TrEMBL record:
It is an enzyme of class 2 (transferase). Coiled coil: none annotated. It comes from Certhia brachydactyla. One of its GO terms (cellular component) is endoplasmic reticulum membrane. The gene is Pemt. The keyword Lipid biosynthesis applies. One of its GO terms (biological process) is methylation. This is Phosphatidylethanolamine N-methyltransferase.
Amino acid sequence: QVDVAAMVRLFGYVDVTDTGFIVAVLSITFNPLFWNVVGRWEHKTQAVSQVFGSSRAACYCLGAVILLLNCVRSHCFTEAMKSQPKLEGWDWHWTYYSGLAISAVGTLFVISSFLALGFTGTFLGDYFGILMEEKVTSFPFSILDNPMYWGSTAIYLGWSLM
């Protein structure tokens, strides 16, 4: 038999019926689904590029939409975190500063990834036929395979701790 006491205790700290929690989960789920569907659709049809008149304009527009969606996701996440119960014993300075450090490392990975890839490299330029001349192997790609994803995850984990 499996002892589910730990899971029951964990779910005691998450109110899955909270509207803010549900909206945050939907936002977190929707964003990558949206940009992957649009990117793959563009790759197959070039429809977005045709609407905007060029692949670069279309890529920059999709990038702006992705950034806007990320702002909405971050807002929804923050509101959900505010309305959720807090873990007892975690409301200490060390928790806050650990979260701050984790978020700082995540921010380093996200910003350095963006600087290494550029706007079109970050925001699905390859789906629009905008290819990099060679694979990026400089920091942070020299230490992680997916530094943008790991960095974003670290930011949200750190934010949660804070």
